[in-house]
Amino acid sequence: MQYDLLIKNGYVVDYASAREGYFDVAVQNGMIAAVESSIGGSAVRELDASGKLVLPGLVDSHVHASAWLGGSYAHTMLVKAGVTSALDMSGPGTSVLELAREYGTGLNLATIEYVRPGHTVSSDDPSSAELQQLITKVQRQGSLGIKLLGGHYPLTVAATARAIRAAAELGAYTAFHAGTAAHGSNIEGMLEAVELADGNPLHLAHINAYCRGTVLPEAEETELALKALAANPNISCESYLSPLNGTSAEIIDGLPGSMVT
């Protein structure tokens, strides 16, 4: 049989079938036709994937692809890394859509909207009604939910809990860069976030941001963080691969605007 494409000698990782190992992959009419240890026959195009991973496509659950963060290069960078689906983790959602129209590369791209005092909410202590109004608004605009920028632009402890609860009630996605007016973006803030979730679904952004050894030795912080996640299956988390977690360095009234800075 002649295939359209034959990928040889690669290390295949297939999440759907839990198959992992060295296989050949044949493609016919835009569909996977065969995955075998060795596939004979000819192909219109043949690729040697020796020393490479062969994957259906990466899902990146934390990217930035708006004019505020990420910018016009985000789509190209993601595609070059093998990403096929991604979640923009702050918005603004309207900006994400505008950049996708102008610079899109065919990604499946979703977005959530940031909750920032003085921008999307009136203060650091918004009411449940104000938070519900924001969530409903961004859902209608096409966003999946909200991102609490706690480490950078924190809400009060009570308002943070209200936001997580309001999102759960409205069926919205909630992500949280740990930190409130009471605790910073460190292991204490992460453990506080676990408590504030109160069993509701929560995407707790980048676990490695809270295990830098600023409160306890790094190994102890890491152990505490992993135990907290294991004990709370309602919480999802990821780690970033960049060596830096950038901030805007914006100065407001003579002080850094971001508490992480």
Secondary structure layout:
Elements: E1 2-14, E2 19-28, E3 31-36, E4 42-48, E5 53-54, E6 58-63, H1 74-80, E7 83-90, H2 93-103, E8 108-115, H3 128-140, E9 145-148, H4 157-169, E10 173-176, H5 187-197, E11 202-204, H6 218-231, E12 235-237, E13 251-252, E14 255-256
Parallel strand pairs: 1-4, 1-5, 6-7, 7-8, 8-9, 9-10, 10-11, 11-12
Antiparallel strand pairs: 1-2, 2-3, 13-14
Helix pairs in contact: 3-4, 5-6
Q: Stretches where pLDDT falls below 50 for ≥5 residues?
A: none
| Helical amount | 25-40%
Which sequence of SSEs, written as H and E, runs from N to C? EEEEEEHEHEHEHEHEHEEE
Task: Compute the number of strand runs.
Answer: 14
Query: What is the end-to-end distance?
Result: 60 Å
The dominant shape is elongated
Major sheet: arrangement of strands: 6-7-8-9-10-11-12
- Mean of residue pLDDT values: 93
Report the β-strand fraction as a percent range.
25-35%
Structural class: alpha/beta
Largest sheet: 7 strands, parallel
Q: Domains counted in the coordinates: how many?
A: 2
- Rg calc: 21 Å
Number of helices, counting only DSSP H or I runs of 4 residues or more = 6
